[in-house]
Amino acid sequence: MLELRPTCENCNKALPPSSADARICSYECTFCVDCVDTILENVCPNCGGGFVPRPVRPVKNWKGDNYLGKDPASTKIRHRPVDAASHASFANGIKRIPPNDR
Ligand SMILES: [Zn+2]
Ligand SMILES: [Zn+2]
Question: Where are the beta strands (DSSP E) in the chain?
Answer without folding.
Answer: 22-24, 30-32, 52-53
